[in-house]
Write a structure and sequence with these properties.
single chain; mainly beta; seven-stranded mixed sheet; four-stranded antiparallel sheet; 11 strands; globular
């Protein structure tokens, strides 16, 4: 599985962005997917995850009610809708795929990673 993240950019606080992660290769529709982020000088952090068909989702507390993870298995694409963005959301966002259908919040459980897309939220 190869993953290509896109959709990052510069946005003012309170604004919105939608990240996309296009997957190529076989198995996307069977695998759990997630978004992680890494801010400058900080460790990588779990953001959100979804199981193979999208009916189970998990979020880090800091984004609950603001971010929504979703997937379109017919398009082999994962999304992260980010609303009410805050300066502390500034980071490089990575999509990741497991090789099983159940979710995890630990990055070590994910086998495939995209290249990352930068989100910058100005105050």
């Amino acid at each position: 599985v190869q993953l290509q993240a896109s959709g990052g950019g510069l946005v003012q606080a309170g604004g919105s962005l939608r990240l996309s992660c296009a997957a190529s290769g076989r198995g996307f529709s069977m695998y759990a997917m997630a978004w992680f982020r890494q801010a400058p000088g900080k460790e990588r952090e779990f953001v959100a995850a979804t199981n193979w068909n999208g009916d189970i989702t998990y979020y880090v507390d800091s984004v609950k009610g603001r971010f929504t993870i979703s997937r379109d298995n017919s398009r082999n694409t994962l999304y992260l809708q980010m609303n009410s963005l805050k300066p502390e959301d500034t980071a490089v966002y990575y999509c990741a795929s497991r090789v099983v259908g159940t979710t995890a919040t630990n990055g070590a459980a994910y086998s495939y990673w995209g290249q990352g897309t930068l989100v910058t939220v100005s105050s």
